[in-house]
Amino acid sequence: MTSRQIRCKKCxxxxxxxxxxxxCSNCKSPLIEVSASEVASLERRKTAGExxxxxxxxxxxxxxxxxxxxxxxxxxxxxxxxxxxWLFAASPG
Length: 93
Ligand SMILES: [Zn+2]
Prior knowledge:
This protein is 44% helix and 9% strand. The model has no long low-confidence stretch (mean pLDDT 86). It is mostly helical.
């Protein structure tokens, strides 16, 4: 088995790298820094498949109503599209 070593950016201590989210054994700072844009990109990829808008606890009442209407319209729209796709697929010729 090959072992990887990574140097701490803060204190310069060499660490044996076993997993990606490891901390420095000397100063406890994260060895592999994840940039803010990377975190945002991961969040975007996580929610990319979701068609509905998430309703948050912190949303104002009018925002909640707007989001609920948007989600309902999206659901109806997808249902209509799915129905027509089924119709074309089921019809002969
Ligand atoms: Zn360190």
